[in-house]
Amino acid sequence: MEKKATRDSYGEALVMLAEKRPDLVVLDADLAAATKTGTFKKAYPDRFFDCGIAEANMMGVAAGIASTGKLVFASSFAMFAAGRAFEIVRNSIGYPHLNVKIGATHAGISVGEDGASHQCNEDIALMRAIPGMTVINPADDVEAKAAVLAMADYVGPTYMRFGRLAAPIFNDPATYKFEVGKGIQLKDGKDVTIVATGLMVAEAIEAGKALAEQGIDARIINIHTIKPIDREIIVKAAKETGKIITVEEHSVIGGLGSAVADVVTEECPVPVIKIGVKDVYGHSGPAVDLLKEFGLCAENIVAVTKAALGR
Amino acid sequence: MDALLKKQLEIAATKVRMGVIEGVHSAKAGHPGGSLSVADTLTYLYMHRMNVDPKNPDMPERDRLVLSKGHTAPALYAVLAERGFFPAEELKTLRKIGSRLQGHPSMGKLPGIDMSTGSLGQGISTACGMALSGKISNEIYKVYAVLGDGEIEEGQVWEAAMFAAHYQLDNLVAVVDNNGLQIDGKIDEVMSPYPIDEKFKAFGWHVINVDDAHDFDKLEKAFNEAETVLNKPTVIIQKSVKGKGVSFMENQVGWHGKAPNDEEYAVAMKELSDHLAALENN
């Protein structure tokens, strides 16, 4: 299967967007080469502004630009966009509900060799706690591009999470449709539901195939919009399959698993077992090896699912 | 400055000060000290200098003001009311449930508020964004950012200072209200930001020092000079008196964030209304 990092999709989507949105402005904080806003910078140098290594100021600048009616994307690594600049995002963007799109790349443990200081496993938790913030975590190239284009038309603060590691392109660009707030059922199933987001969706699909071979009929759901979450698809899955496994390249505290559990405990209590980074820091190493080590892979999804079903 | 205009501004500023005291007393909370120190500057900008229209508060070509020292919202509210953005009667709702006059400015709630502020150090960055946006689409509006002298202890202010000079935002004018006091005491004792002018100069700004922020002639001269500066942002560092206009509040750190009781309120209003009467009868 062809692979591409969603950060590359992000950079390409910005260029696609620029053609139809002359009001588009893109900001970065000295990471344009890595976040891939550099792709946009090359095509539209007059509409790209480097803010230097100053993420707090960049988020404030983005808020000011948005207040004048322009469409603005502000980019950095997830660690700095959601982490370092949290309170600026909360007070200068979230509170006035300004139309700023935060494009955060290098999210999760798959940052790899840079190690724990750069492996942000807390960004979803931070961003979904901000009232009115939409949180998007696309799974592949097709979804990432569609999400960027769709969110450009949506008015309101949005956090978009992209990865460094090349991700398998499993969606078909000819048929794929992005709808904010709508989960996508990738495979029906009656024994258990695996709800995944971002880089983990492809792993969940693989796990679903392996489970099928072992006689377990798992439903697979892709949640690209973590907030507002698709309550309907989750409640339906809870009712029809009775058990939910969540998978995310993020801490098990405050991310997809927590969001799913929030819905399930309120509307249809069933067990929710969370696969994610278990309240620890990562460390340096090749991304693929780290994902395996932290259980963020199809093999572990299969193992956890079987254990949950007592098989 | 024309003598009549000066008198009109002094009258307006006195009404603004009365609005500050009215609001803070009614709320039984708020920040009178810094509101009174910046009252003349905000009065000058909204009543004379800025291109704003109370009937069309969101007009795209308007000049913008970001009160980066957002805790002095009572002064901004009083000025906006004086300029006709909303009825002055509403000043008494300050900080109350259901009021459009939040403890710190909240855009979208109240006409005339260009940015939500309150967390110090953030407003100057948003002002940079507004100024950059104006440059991108060749608009002629000006952006004013009003900061406290204690506020510039925040690192983000200096990130913004670097940004504004780098992008040559000559449509941005920052004001540092140098009243010399912050919550914990004198700014040079808590965490000295001095020399403020040399710092901004080193960051590439055009610097104007104003030795009396309560003299409209001096404010006019400073903002006129700022208007002529090209390819650089300007900062006006104004020496002001915290609590200005209410004798027992002047230069008293204790009046940073405290409301007057009924007795103090009466004394303050008497002083201000006497001053107003003197101006009007003169």
Précis, in short:
The complex is a heterodimer of chains A (311) and B (282). Chain A is an alpha/beta fold.
Index terms:
heterodimer, A: 311 residues, Rossmann fold, 2 domains, five-stranded mixed beta sheet, 14 strands, 41% helix, 21% strand, B: 282 residues, two-stranded antiparallel ribbon, 7 strands, globular
Q: How would you describe the overall organization of this protein?
A:
In chain A, strand 13 (244-251), helix 11 and strand 14 (272-277) form a beta-alpha-beta unit. Chain A is 41% helix and 21% strand. With 311 residues, chain A is of the alpha/beta class. With 282 residues, chain B is α/β, with parallel strands linked by helices. Chain B has one domain: Thiamin diphosphate (ThDP)-binding fold, Pyr/PP domains (Rossmann fold). Chain B is built from nine helices and seven strands, in the order ααβααβαβββααβαβα. Chain B has helices at residues 3-27, 32-49, 73-83, 123-136, 155-166, 187-190, 196-202, 216-228, 262-281; strands spanning 64-67, 143-148, 172-178, 181-182, 185-186, 206-210, 234-239. In chain B, the strands form two sheets. In chain B, strands 1-2-3-7-6 form a five-stranded parallel β-sheet, with helices on both faces. A two-stranded antiparallel ribbon of chain B has the order 4-5. The radius of gyration of chain B is 17 Å and the shape is globular. Chain A binds chain B through residues 25, 46-47, 49, 51-52, 54, 56-70, 72, 87-88, 91-92, 95-97, and chain B through 60, 66, 106-108, 114-116, 118-119, 121-134, 136-137, 155-156, 159-160, 162-163, 166-167.
